[in-house]
Amino acid sequence: MGTKVLISGAGIAGPALALWLGRYGFEVTVAEAAPQLRGGGQAVDFRGATHLTVLERMGVLDDLRRIRTGGSPMRFVDESGRTRLHLPAEFAGGDVEVLRGDLVRVLYEHSRPFTDYRFGESVTALRQDADGVHVRFRGGEARTFDLVVGADGLHSNVRRLAHGPEERYVTHLGHYAAGWSLPNYLGIGPGEGSVGLNVPGRFASVGTSHRDPETAGAFFVFASPALTYDRHDQERQKAIIAGAFAGTGWEVPRLLASLAEAEDLYFDSISRADVPNWSTGRVALVGDAACGATIGGMGTGTAIVAAYVLAGELAAAAGEHTAGDHTAAFARYEGLLRGYARGCQKGGDRAGRFLAPGAVGLRLRDWSLNRPRILDWMSEEGRKATHLDLPDYRRFETASGARRDGVGTPLSTPGRPRR
């Protein structure tokens, strides 16, 4: 019987880790608080040879290329609609850009044969001892696992239970971001990307959907000190957004009017996670839970790489009978990834100031980025930041992995906790 691993979170890092662990013969359970896979979301991208190598080894690169968006150009305007800055598709889209919901679905489908997915379920308590990690789920079930991994995002529940409260580890970076769907009333065509207004400290944009030309997506960013609000109270969040953009011109009043009917609102601070130790005992963190940055920190690519390294080091420790197996694996995983992840995070530190700078920063950004050589330099620096010499763990793959055919909650039905 293989090592039993519980992964909390079925976003990006969780299914990626499940795919690799399943191939290496581990018994994997993924608990996801949402009743089904989370769709929608902004486009995410992969840049450079390291990202593409991991995707290719996972067997998902061809799938992602088939559903790639082709990149999303961005046009910045003033309140009269005059263009201030145009960023080409390749600047924002990297080497492969896909919609976040599409990426999640691909990773789920590839990991599902190896994984017991439990939708509508989350961890409420953790207790470690020599026998494993004793877990209690929201539905009341209690189980013991050899290892637990928190892949549950910047506001990680597992991190809170294993390491302590969020405020110890998550730093507000001075801005908030929001996004929601609305009718494409501007008639933005496929491939036109997004158009957005910049005024000092605020950015309001709208772009076409890559799947449905009748649907558009609004994306707002605004500067603000840390705010106190209930993360589950969408009406309060809508009021915060409306207040932040009150009196702003261009298309903002119409975009705010659509917010009242939005059922898919995303709202969060632009923040960074800094966790001194990515593991404690038998519990580890991966992706945004360990080293996330809300926007601009190349978190999607980092999550894919981190899942590859964490699974590979666990497989190596088990295969080589290293003393303390998981302890040695967790240490090597963090040693390989911490510096890399921090380098990628630096983009997140600048994201709010790039999208919604102050008056001086706005003029400086537009002046510099209207010069093609500076754009080319920034794109190349982004690719350099994602480079990492990767170990090759493929020798640890079993013939068929810990295949669990028939296990997993179908996408077409709400995921009920499995007993």
From TrEMBL:
- Region (Disordered) location: 399-419
Which Gene3D superfamilies is this protein grouped with? Answer: D-Amino Acid Oxidase, subunit A, domain 2, FAD/NAD(P)-binding domain
Question: Which Gene Ontology molecular function entries are recorded, alphabetically?
Answer: monooxygenase activity
SUPFAM superfamilies attached here?
FAD/NAD(P)-binding domain
Q: Which Pfam families did the record assign?
A: FAD_binding_3
Write the record's keywords in alphabetical order, separated by commas: Monooxygenase, Oxidoreductase
**Which stretches make up the FAD-binding domain?**
3-162
Highest taxon listed in the record's lineage: Bacteria
Could you identify this protein by its name? Answer: FAD-dependent monooxygenase
Lineage, opening ranks? Bacteria, Bacillati, Actinomycetota, Actinomycetes, Kitasatosporales
